[in-house]
Fold this protein.
Amino acid sequence: MTDASNIIISVKGLKTAFGDFVVHENLDLDVREGEIIAVVGGSGTGKSVLMRTILGLNPAREGAIRVFDTDILKADERDLHEVDLQVGVLFQSGALFSSMTVLENVLAPVREHLSLPWELQRDLGAMKIAMVGLPRDAANKFPSELSGGMRKRAGLARALAMDPKLVFLDEPTAGLDPIGAAKFDELIVSLKDSLGLTVFIITHDLDTLYAASDRVAVLADRKVIAVGPLDEVRETPHPWIQEYFSGPRGRAALKSNGTVSGRMPEKSDGS
Amino acid sequence: MNAPGFIREERDDTIFVRVEGDWILENGLGRIDKALRQLSMDSLNQNLIIDLDGLGLIDTTGAMMLQRTMRHCGKRESLTDLLHGFQGGNGRQRKLIERAASVLEDCPVDAPRPSQFIILLDRVGRSAENMIADGLAITSFLGQTLVTLVRVLSQPKKLRMTSLVHHMEESGLNATLIVGLMSFMIGAVVAFMGAKILSQFNASIFTVELIGISVLREFGVLLTAILIAGRSGSAYTAQLGSMNLNEEIDAMRVIGIDPMEALVVPRVLAMVLVLPALAFIAAMLGLLGGALVSWTVMDISPALFLTRTQDAIVIENFFVGLVKAPFFAFVIAVIGCYQGMSVEGSSENLGKRTTMSVVQSLFLVIVIDAMFAILFLELDI
C-alpha cells in the first residue's frame, strides 16, 4: 500500500473542547493518499467535530493538523484557501444553496474561482451531475424539489466540481433507503478508483464499512482507539467495538458482505 | 504545469490531433474550449484521431472535453468503443477518458428565450394572479382564526394561558422601552416643529394642541403599530415558518393538536391585548416629550401645558387613538401568523414570507387607519 510519505491528513495530539466539555484529547489520525477511510463512533463522540476541525471550521485547543502539508491551525488565510481548493465536502444534509438550482449549485465553486465560457460551464456542470448519477432534468430543479438521496448526490456533485484530491463525506448514506445507500457506496468507490480521490467518510452505516472502506478508524473515549483494515479493527477487544460489530446489525452486515473487508465489484454507474 | 493545447494535422481524410500540456481545469482549459468546438465541427465528416502521448496531467473536465470533441454530441457515427479514436496515453488517462464517455451529455440546446415583452406580460399576469390568490387565502385564514378564536373563548379551558402570557411578554412587555423611547422623541420632534412654525404667527401656545391632537390621535398608536409589525409580526412569521419547515406543525396536526388553537390564537390574542397598552404608553410618553420641549424651548410650563391640554384637547382624541389599537393588533398578528403558516420548501421562502408579512401588515395598518379617519370624519368626532 502507500508508504508514510503519502500521508494527506495528519492529526497529532488534537484536543478540542466546547467550554469545559472536552470532545477530543490526544487524538492521532493519519489518512493516506488514495484510500477511503471510514470514521465510526457512537453518537456524540465528535466525528463531525473532528471533520470540522480538520477543515478549519472549528478551533482546536492543542495539537497539530496537517492537510497537504499545510498546518491548518497555524496557516494564514491564503494557505487555507489553497487547501480549500483541493478539498470537497459533502455535509450531512447536502447543504445545497436553496436559492440556486442544482446546476448553479454545482457550478458555484467553479464560478467563484475561475472564469470559464458559459458553454464549458454548462458542459462541466452536466458532466458532474451525470457523474453522480442524477437524471439530466435534475439540473434545473431547486434543492427543495429533490428527494433526500438526490440532494446528497447533488451535494457530492458540488463537492467534486473542482476535481478535489480529498473529499469529506459526513454520513453520506444516512437517511437513504438501502438500495440508494448501496448505490452511493458503489458510486464513492468507483469515483475513488477513476479519479484517484482520497475519501474521508463519517458513517454509522456498517454496510458502508464493508462495501467502501479501505481502513476504519474508531472514535471513542475522546480519541481514535483503533485504526486499520476492517478485519483487524473488528478483532480489537474494546467493548464498544465488540458491541458495534457483534450486535445484531453488525452480524447481519458481516453475513451479507462476507468476511473479507473487500469492496463490491465496481460497476459503471448508470447514466 | 504546462498550458493545455493541441496540434492539428490533416492527412487525406483524417485529422490527427496531438494533445499537449496538462489538461487541468484551473490551468486554462477555458481558453481552448472554443478551438476544440471548432475542431469538433470541422472534423465531423472526417476521421479524427487524438494522440495522447504528449498529454501531461488530466482531470475530469479535460477528459470530458476530449470525449466531447471525439463524439460531437453523439453525431459521429462508427465509434466502436468508448476509447475509439484515442491513441497512446497511460492507463489512468485512458481510464478517465473512457469514463467521461459514459457521462457525456448530448449537446444541450438552450431553450429559446421568449421576447422581453412576453416576459413582462407573463410576470404582470402572474403577480396579479398571486395577489388575488393571496388576498383570498388571507381572508380565509382570517375567517378560520375568528372561528377558532370564538370557539376558544367560549371554552376557556382550551385557551393556552402559558403561551398567551409568554407572547404578551415577548411582544408587549419587552417592547415597552423601545416604543416609549420612540414616542417620547416623536413628541419632542412635533413640539420643535410647532415651536418653529407657530411662533412665526405668534401662536406658539397652540403647540400644545398640535402635540396633543397629533400624538393622541395618530402618532402614538400608528407608530406603535408600525414598530410592533416590524418587531413582533415578523417574529411570528419567522417562528411559525421555521416550525413549518421543521415539520413541527405537521407533527402537531398528527398528534391531534390544532395549530390554529395552539399557535395562532395565543399570538393573536396576546397582540390584541398588549398593543392598546403599548399605544397608551406611547401616547403618554409622546405628550411628555412634547411638554418637555415646550417647557425648555418655549417656556410653556408643565402646569400650563397640562391645563391647556385638559381644556383644549377633548378626551375624544385620546379614545379615537386607542380604539384603533386592537384592530391594528389583530391585522398584524393575523398576517404574521398567516405568512408563517404558508412557508414551504426552503429557508429562502421563509425570508421572503417574513418580508411580505411586514410589508402587508404595514400596508393594511395604514389602510385601516385611513378608513378610521373617514369614519370619524363622517361621525364628526
Summary: The interface with chain A takes residues 24-26, 29-30, 33-34, 37, 59-61, 64-65, 68, 92, 95-96, 99-100, 102-105, 108, 345-349 of chain B (CB under 8 Å). The longest strand of chain B covers residues 14-23. Chain B has two domains: 5-102, 126-379. Residues 164 and 271 of chain B are 9 Å apart (CA to CA).
